[in-house]
Here is the input.
Amino acid sequence: MATHGKRYNEAAKTVGEVEPMAPLEALELVKKAATAKFDETVDVAIKLGVDPRHGDQMVRGTTNLPYGTGKVRKVAVITSSEKAQAAIDAGADRVGGEDLVADIQKGWMDFDVLLATPDVMKLIGRLGSILRAKMPSKKAGTVAEDIAQVVKEIKTASRVEFRVEKAAIVHAPIGKASFTAEQLTENLGALITALTKAKPASAKGRYIRKVTVSSTMGPSVPIDVALAAKMAVK
Here is the structure.
């Protein structure tokens, strides 16, 4: 049986045993339970009605949250010399071509997100076995022609990437405990809208099956699935 620390147990008492509730109400409870001395991240876990073992049911993509995630990430960019300056001006932490690829092959991984432009995909191909899930791809929105715009979105913490895991669950940050419950709710709605638009044609039955929200150190709070599904903007 999993054991939790004193802070978690105290937060759990604040939440108690609750039934699935409206998104705003659930996020207000998550904020109340976030008592750590740092600004806790608020995460959402969404169970989808897909089977990720089948390629045609993989759900992956990116979306911009209205109020951002509140998290600053290190961004590296592999691109041609022609677009290097634009990436630097946009705030990329490191930009390079052959030199950057060589360093990654040697073990350098001091970045949270790796981006690339389409014209260097042959270079990127050398890194597949090293990067795995961090491999840039068009589907994930990490390979783009307008690389400066993507860098800006990530560095301003407005962009979030989502990817369904083996258990058919998507985990993603939707902000910080310091955000208002209304801001967190709008961010959650943007994510659910993106997930809904990314629904595979082969997915059958109910698509969004379970939604829970929690802070870094706090317990999960369930959200009413029907109300969550209605948050998607068509």
Notes: The radius of gyration is 19 Å. The longest strand covers residues 41-48. The chain has a mean pLDDT of 91.
